[in-house]
Amino acid sequence: MSQPEPQGAQQAQDAHVTQPDWNRIAQKFDLWLPHIAPVGDALIERLDLHPGDRVLDLACGTGEPGLTLARRYGDEVNILGVDAAEGMVNAARAKVEKEGIRGIAYKVMPAEDLFLPDAGFDRAICRFGAMLFKDPVKGFFEMRRVLAPGGRFAVAVWGERMSAIEMAAKALKPHLPEDSPAPFAQVTALGPPGALEAALEAAGFTGFEVTRHTLDYRFESFEAYWDLVEESAMLADLMGQLTPQQQDAVRDEVASLATAYQEPGGLVLPHVYLIASGPR
To answer: What is the pTM of this model?
Structure first.
């Protein structure tokens, strides 16, 4: 099967921006999982799983949502999770070994270059990974290639609004070199209207649907939110380029921006995400 020429979704393909060091933060990434767990549940619902299905979890991170699938369905389904970051895969494998989970395995593998056979899977799932592919069209092409006829997929990407990222990007930008790439722009690169659809269509998918959803991150206070940001090391690479005084200025600026999201019960950070699902 020939590889398509990348087209459409240029926001994602041209967003050459700095990403966190996923290997380095792998052990801390799980701190965010409770906030995005509902998205995994929504994706699983759209897979329409059947006993015996072979499931591919693309850009699986530290194991989700594949682990949730394995816990729910046991030996009824066979799951393979893949991620380009070895640290993430090792973290996922450690969970499988600790819990003695059967029917699931993990491999280090970029989505754009799956060394897997054609039509080897009945279902494919990807939660908040596709927008971080180096080439989303190629990643989706590979996903379609390994899906069997009659197979289905479900993919979630961040939409045009992700307040936690917007605040950090705005606060960081003035302190970085002028020629620095926009902080975190790739995280929402498939969020603009039509971008996700264009990437999927360029990869050969038809008959799918894209739906828009909202998701709130809730914290008792700004301090609780910022503690999570620091503990998870999501900003470590960028903050490490700054002086201590600049780091303090970034925190203060984010705290100021966060006041817009302060409610009586605490800090509520709104996000938008998209789900694309459909047949091979």
So the answer is: 0.88
Which ranges constitute the DSSP H helices of the chain? 10-13, 22-29, 33-47, 66-73, 86-99, 136-146, 163-172, 195-202, 222-232, 236-239, 244-258
Percent of the chain with pLDDT over 90: 72
- Identify the domain containing residue 134 by its residue range: 10-161+184-216+272-279
Q: Judge whether 36 and 215 are in contact, CB under 8 Å.
A: yes
* Distance (Å, whole) CA 263 – CA 245: 29
DSSP designation for 207 = S
Q: What percent of the chain has pLDDT over 70?
A: 90
Question: 219 φ, ψ to 5°?
Answer: -135, 150
What whole-number distance in Å separates Cα of residue 261 and Cα of residue 277? 31
Q: Is residue 234 part of a domain?
A: no
For residue 56, what are the β-bridge partners?
A: 80, 124
Q: What is the pLDDT of residues 74-130, one digit of tens each?
A: 889 999 999 999 989 999 999 999 999 999 999 999 999 999 999 999 999 999 999
pLDDT band of 59, cuts 50, 70, 90: very high
Q: How many independent structural domains does the chain possess?
A: 1
CATH number at residue 72: 3.40.50.150
Q: Which of 88, 91, 83 is nearest to 113 (CA)?
A: 83
